Amino acid sequence: MSTQVELVDISSPSLPTSDTDRPPIERAKIQESFRRAQFRWSHVDWIVLIWMLVMHVGAIAAAFFVEWKSVIAAIALHWLTCSVGVCLAYHRCLSHDSFRLAGPVRFFVTLCGVLSGQGSPLMWAATHRVHHSRSDRDGDPHSPREGFWWSHLLWLFVRRTPAERQRLYHVFAPDLVQDRMLQFFERTYSFWLVSFGGLLFWLGGWSLLLWGGCLRIVVGYHTTWLINSASHVWGYRNYETSDGSRNLWWAGLLAYGEGWHNNHHAWPREACYGHRWWELDLTWQTIRILKLVGLATQVVQKSPPASLPHR
294: which of 40, 67, 86, 143 is 20 to 30 A away, CA to CA? Predict the structure, then answer.
């Protein structure tokens, strides 16, 4: 049994409330840039492709440089960059405005997201908002209806010009594009990744670089990408939404609560994604702690389980 809800358009109250509120020509150009037809040799982002290859080769090489301190560091950094950085900062705070953070905390958690290697905060948030506005429809950046591997990985290799990136930011992230902190990370994104890699090598040699850098980043990539691919294909649905989002328990565990994807698409601004007692959301626990100590405010809690039938 599932509950019928209206699929809500993206996140921030400062954003347009529907697709039709956005400039039609600008919207059409953005959607065109995300279509699979753009995936051709003449339009490949070679920088992204080479980076991905290097990270995956490094992840494989980590098997030959095993040290316990590096393994422990990789686990800790995975939580810090993926749960705190991507799930908490990039996704729930920036993309959906589910809560507000004190200035220094906001800087730190956003920096953690930068060190995940998943793109600049502006690019990540704006692209994710396109996904919510066009979920599993024409113009969705990574719908599995265009193929599982397209939604999981291949969509990342489409090159976008600086003008296309700026258009994306101004149309889908107008509340973020003028943020000085986010503009700072937009300019210095590569610097932070390279510098952190150098720091890891200086502290622990090849073992720490490969485990705490390459392998940690690659595992973070695939756990995040599973939400785009697997969580729109397999799993169960608490809510009837107009897309194919599903709750996938093992993705929920691997991605720190993000795998309760049907819940999220039904209630995109809700800060907690676990709507049944067994739907563990580890990122939400961190948000609760930040709220308890006064570092997270205006936390969106609409209690959707009140309308959710028991099984």
Answer: 86
State pLDDT tens for residues 11-38.
Answer: 343 444 344 455 666 766 676 667 666 6
Q: Please state whether beta strands 296-297 and 100-101 pair in parallel, antiparallel, or not at all (unpaired).
A: antiparallel
Question: Within 10 A of 91 (CB to CB), how many other CB atoms are there?
Answer: 24
Give the pair of three-digit tokens for residue 277: 């007692």
* Bridge partners for 44 per DSSP: 158
User: Which tokens is 113 given?
Assistant: 């997201």
Per DSSP, what are the bridge partners of residue 3? 239
Q: How far apart are CA 10 and CA 268, in angstroms?
A: 7
- Please report the pLDDT score of residue 18 as a whole number: 40
Amino acid at 74: A
Q: What is the largest CA-CA distance in the chain?
A: 55
Q: Can you say whether residue 235 is alpha, beta or left, with left for phi > 0 and alpha for psi between -120 and 50 degrees?
A: left
- Cα separation, 85 vs 109, in Å, equals 5
State the pairing for strand pair 239-240/100-101: unpaired
pTM for the complete prediction? 0.90
- Host H or E run for residue 240: strand 239-240
Report which residue type is found at 113. G
